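Entry:
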Amino acid sequence: MGKRLTQIATRTGDDGTTGLGDNTRVPKSHPRIAALGDVDELNSHIGLLLCEPLPQAVRELLIDVQHQLFNLGGELSIPGFALLQESAVLQLDQALAQHNAALPRLQEFILPAGTRAAAQAHVCRTVARRAERAVVALGAQEAVRETPRHYLNRLSDLMFVLARVLNRMDGGDDVYWKSERLARAQQE
C-alpha cells in the first residue's frame, strides 16, 4: 500500500468526499465507502469480542480474521485491486467445520443472547451480514471480485457457530426461541 497516514485531520473530507487508495475522490455516500465502513465496523466489533475471555484457538482465529478484514478493506479502497486471498475463505470453511462438528444439532432457533462473549459474536454476525450486503450493493454498480463476498458470507456463519461455542464455554447453552407453534405441537 502506498501512503501511510501521517496527518489525521486533513480537512480534505470537509466537502463530503473521501479519497480512495488510487487517489480518486468519491462522495462519502458512495457504495464503496459504505462497504468499507461496514467492514471497518465489523473489525472493530471483533476487536471488542477479543476483550472477552476466549479459548486460545478462537482468539488466534479472530486475530487472523481481523488481519483478513484489513486486507478486505484495502481491496475495497482501491478499485480493481486484489488483496484478500481465496485461502482466507478456505481457512474460514475449515474453522466452521471444526467448531460446528463439536456442537449439538440445532432443534430450534436461537436468540442472539447468552454470555457476553456469545452476544458480541452475534453482533459480529449481524454486522458481517450488513457488510456482505454492502459489498453486494457495490458489486451491482462496479466490478467486485467474488472473494470478498464469499469471505463475509462465511465469516457471518462462523460468528454464529462461535456464539454457540462461547455459550457452552463454561457449561452453558444457547438461548432458545420460545415458539408458540412448537409449544402447542409438543402439548398435543
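The first strand starts at residue 17 and ends at 19.
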